[in-house]
């Protein structure tokens, strides 16, 4: 069961979308479109009749509304009025850590099937040390039980990702997407990279994206991935290599072939060679 | 008139073929002229492309050759395949001749072509690299003739060189471009410009270069694509105008070439016997430190691999006795005694110059022939010297700065410096006989297709 | 057709060349946008790829400030050539040492120009 991200072109790169009841981390520096990503994610769920929770540390309800309106998404107003989308601004200085107030708000808008956004997670964990890894783990565990979550994480302009406030969420998140904006105004100015996508195939590489009025983020590269897909005939490959393959391994290899990912044939050959 | 250029720069032959086939599907007119240009990555698969084109355009007049590269609207490519398709408004026809001997081939082809054409594009091998057996015989004859040459007096030497030249002609080994163009011009009335595609790959292979004419393999013969209609051809070289005397020309040209040294050349017909009293290759080795003579075995191996180098920055230059024009023949340390050349040497002074790099004056000079382009032209097809690849490298892209000023629709091929016959004499340095132009490097021919 | 697919179509022919081990299009921050390596050379090339990522910024600096038209590095039996494509992209070719590049250079320049045309918006 997949949850559509709402970001055009992305789901195919994620093997169909995000996995349900997981936590996705969007890592990116300022100006990469993290907030737009989260709004698109929420809008997609709301369109489908799901509920949404939006936790912000920068914007209140009006701010979120203005951002959505600037992109032409007027229906957000209705979703907020209908209380299908709950928006709350928290102040980092008041939220000492992953506290009850925050969790209570998220729980109040979630039904186990909701879309949850925390934009951004950085103020919450800025003073994080490695000893507090379990706390984040617990927090993510709770989030998974409430719905499918997207949290944003600010990438330091220095590019240093070694801080625990960055590494811990990246380790514990189920899916990590990195947005980059190098600021030179060319086609590869903004790119998206899927760093991990637990339990699922995902496209490798960097994919250019644009932010367009009305539609938000559009990621390119689906056709590129498609043409790189490989058709591998596992039976003829096994025959050619002359090896005996145990039944359970055969099933796994067959599954690999069905996915048709680039490099499958070479990977299978390596496995079969090891059986010789 | 409609024109389409179909190309693939893919070197994987399956992908290349598939891409070409797909692109041919998109051609929305019926061409009456098909020119197939194969590069070093694809020429060995000529049969597949020839068949493909024959199936698609069986009625078209077809010419196929191997080129070093091609120039598209804003890019230059040296790999893959390129096909020029034209729906030409006037009459067009391909003639070919697979005769015995270069002179005989030119005579017969000229007779077939006849008079009344407005432009002839003539494809012929500058030097033909035969199979191993024929090559062995050529090496043997080179030693045999040269052995005699070393033992006799001056008059006898001339006769031996003449006989060896006849042998090279008879075996289609060398098509001397001035003689070939002279014969063609005479046979076709003398008032039709002739553009020579004298084929000499930068890296030669056994049984190359080859020519396809109307989907038939005609090597080591020659073929001509003849046009009647609104068509022009222009030639240019990169040098200043020639002098009005032997001395004046030498003075002008010496200022444009590197490492210039006066030499005395013993020559006749199509061969150089000696330079400054020694074998041409020995002379070269004496002058250029670092060069080593190839052995026969090495040469055969390189030909087998398609890697025999034919380009060289060193050469001997001659002044024409007829026009005071000047031209150069490249020298490379092949395992030979007599040095065969690409043109008939009889009308040149014996005093020549040994020289280095032929290029000076910049890339843009190379395409100055575009300055002749007329405003009401529809399409320009040009032939540019392939040695410019070495001389200019990536700076070659500067040609687009010039071409764009004069043409909106163009396509070019890179080939051994093209010879040209112009019924109207010129002042070009490279006019070596009345109307006949050739220089080993830096010449360009522009063919202009006018609106009807 | 997406930009990535168009770029891969332009660069794919180079990786078919027997003398070329790897073709990489790097972004200025060292991120490889397109990589194609010969299967049997992948292990050998991985360390070189990391090294290349580290050189991109430096090379681009020289290319833009000193008008370098290309940069070349020679290793034991390999040669690395880097060509600027745009303000943000560099095309790197890793080839066998003795591969003649004089003609290939023109094709690479053509590819660089085509890619430049695609990415400069």
Written description of the protein model:
The complex is a heterotrimer of chains A (276), B (452) and C (121). With 276 residues, chain A is α/β, with parallel strands linked by helices. Chain A is built from 11 helices and 11 strands. In chain A, the strands form 2 sheets. Chain A has a 9-stranded mixed sheet with strand order 5-4-6-7-3-8-9-10-11, sandwiched between helices. In chain A, strand 8 and strand 9 (190-197) form a beta hairpin. The longest helix of chain A is centred in the first third of the chain and has 14 residues, at 34-47. The mean pLDDT of chain A is 88. Chain B has 2 domains: 2-129 and 172-233 and 362-450, no CATH class; 246-355, no CATH class. Chain B starts with a strand and ends with a strand. In chain B, strand 25 and strand 26 form a beta hairpin. In chain B, the strands form 5 sheets. A 7-stranded mixed sheet of chain B has the order 7-13-8-9-24-26-25, with helices on one face. A 6-stranded mixed sheet of chain B has the order 1-6-2-3-11-12, with helices on one face. A 6-stranded mixed sheet of chain B has the order 5-4-23-22-27-14, with no helix packed on it. Chain B is an alpha+beta fold and 452 residues long. Chain B has helices spanning 13-25, 46-56, 102-113, 132-149, 154-170, 177-187, 246-254, 280-287, 296-305, 363-366, 388-392, 399-406, and strands at residues 2-8, 33-38, 61-66, 69-71, 76-77, 81-87, 91-97, 119-125, 194-199, 203-204, 211-213, 216-217, 222-228, 231-236, 261-268, 271-275, 308-309, 315-319, 326-330, 339-340, 351-355, 377-385, 410-415, 420-421, 431-433, 436-437, 444-450. In chain B, helix 3 runs parallel beside helix 6 (177-187) and helix 4 (132-149) runs antiparallel to helix 5 (154-170). Chain B is globular, with a radius of gyration of 21 Å. The model of chain C has no long low-confidence stretch (mean pLDDT 85). Chain C is an alpha+beta fold. Helix content of chain C is 45%, strand content 27%. Chain C has 3 helices and 5 strands, in the order H-E-E-H-E-E-E-H. Chain C has one domain (3-115): Dynein light chain 2a, cytoplasmic (Beta-Lactamase). Chain C has a 5-stranded antiparallel sheet with strand order 2-1-5-4-3, with helices on both faces. Chain C has helices at residues 3-16, 42-65, 104-119; strands at residues 20-27, 32-37, 71-74, 78-84, 89-96. In chain C, strand 4 and strand 5 form a beta hairpin. The chains are: A alpha/beta (276), B alpha+beta (452), C alpha+beta (121). The A-C interface holds A 180, 182, 184-189, 191, 193, 205-208, 220-224, 227-228, 266 and C 1-5, 8, 27-29, 31-34, 39, 86-89, 118-121.
